[in-house]
Amino acid sequence: MKSKKIVIISIIMCLVLLVTALPMLGGCGSESKEGKTLKVGIMTPHTGKAAEKGVPLRDANLDCIDYINNELGGVNGYKIEAVNLDSQYDAAIAVNDINMFMDQGCIFFTTSSSTEMGYVQEIANRAGFPGLVAYSSPSNYHPPLHIYGQTPDYGDDWIAFTNYYLKNIWKGSGKPKMALMVLNNPTGAGATNASKAMADTLGVEIIATEEHAATTISETEALTRIKALNPDVIYISSTPKPAGIIINNAKELGMYPGVTIGICHAAMVKSLIDLAGANVVEGVYGLFPTVMWGEDVASMVKMTEYVNKYHASDAGNTDYIAAWAQSLIIAEILKNALKEVGYETLAKGDAKAWEAVEKYGFQKLSKYDVGGLQGSVSYSTGDNRLTKYNRVYQIVNGKISNPSAWVEAPLVKYEDFPWFGQK
């Protein structure tokens, strides 16, 4: 009888030990994701001459990544590690930044602006290090190599605005006369290149192209030359501060109101209104590739919660929306790549990881809905613009208002024109 009891007790103890050990045994066979991250380089000009744009862009990138990591559990359980560096909108610093991204094992990198990407794209393309630029110019990815555009580029802006102007604003006969005022970098070159490629096709006469610097304090001289040519419309492809100066100068010269003014998406942001004054920019038209604050789309509630909690001064700034969308796209790229090649391949952050994330991350993007913040995101062979949709807005009563329907930007193969890329 005693021996039977001993056997029963022994069996019970063995079962207890086995049940206790099961979770530990299961853990031995499964992958722990704790502390494992995927590094992505994020370059923004949050100091220097473009800081009015770079600060909200940086804030949104990092806020959204915090949201993805802390509320969504990362990407397939892995946290995104943002290596955020300041370009200061300076070529030498941007080059140093991209080398740091590669040295620190980033899988791919982003820039806010076409100019930052212009500084580093030759290095990235030579290395096969894929990049995503929020605000792009045709020169960033024509011909298409390893750089991808989040939104329609500055050439697409010019085409969309010109089409809108011809259909909805122009009431004269013949071709309207348009003057271009462009920043002396890829932001301005995008509009210049588009006008060279498409002005005759669309039916507009370019009567002047005047360049300016990001540090300009007056464009009165250039506008005086333009005024003598009696333009119907002025198109500005620049950033907020110089764009505000140009519009102010046009007002002082009695040109505006009078001529129609259109601006690219780099300048069509709240900081333009703050810098120039609402009364100065009233009535100006401009492009932007996202919705505005307060629209009823899926990502608006969470984005608004974060901006109000962490960066209230960015509330109402559309740059914040664009960069929040960029970080959501970062997560989608990583999700696609993880599905195909797994964590270990990507985590090495070497040339094989870069190739894998481009092939299985970027190039597998298909109709990704960025929570309604911008047009859907897809890659198509030969077209490195991931979103092709823009809207035309107008500044009314100090707010960016009156959105047009979404307009799809056609692919223009700039590389087929003999003048493209020539100084």
Describe the model.
This protein is an alpha/beta fold. The chain has two domains: 37-152 and 296-387, Rossmann fold (3-Layer(aba) Sandwich), CATH 3.40.50.2300; 155-288 and 410-416, Rossmann fold (3-Layer(aba) Sandwich). Helices cover 45% and strands 16% of the residues. The chain has helices at residues 2-29, 51-71, 91-103, 114-127, 154-168, 186-202, 220-227, 240-252, 270-276, 278-281, 300-310, 318-341, 343-347, 351-360; strands at residues 37-44, 79-86, 108-111, 131-133, 147-149, 177-183, 205-212, 233-237, 260-263, 285-288, 389-396, 399-401, 407-408. Strands 6, 7, 8, 9, 10, 11, 12 and 13 form an eight-stranded mixed sheet that branches. α8 (240-252) crosses α9 (270-276). The chain is globular, with a radius of gyration of 26 Å. The model is unreliable at 1-30 (pLDDT under 50).
State Rg. 26 Å
Specify the biggest β-sheet.
8 strands, mixed
Oligomer: single chain
The backbone outline, from C-alpha atoms, is: globular
CATH fold-level assignment of the largest domain: Rossmann fold
- Mean pLDDT, to the nearest integer, reads 92
Q: How far apart are the termini?
A: 101 Å
What is the count of structural domains? 2
Broad structural category: alpha/beta
Unreliable stretches covering 5 or more consecutive residues: 1-30
CATH class label of the largest domain? Alpha Beta
Strand content: 15-25%
Write the layout of secondary structure elements.
Blueprint: H1 2-29, E1 37-44, H2 51-71, E2 79-86, H3 91-103, E3 108-111, H4 114-127, E4 131-133, E5 147-149, H5 154-168, E6 177-183, H6 186-202, E7 205-212, H7 220-227, E8 233-237, H8 240-252, E9 260-263, H9 270-276, H10 278-281, E10 285-288, H11 300-310, H12 318-341, H13 343-347, H14 351-360, E11 389-396, E12 399-401, E13 407-408
Parallel strand pairs: 1-2, 1-3, 3-4, 4-5, 6-7, 6-8, 8-9, 9-10
Antiparallel strand pairs: 10-11, 11-12, 11-13
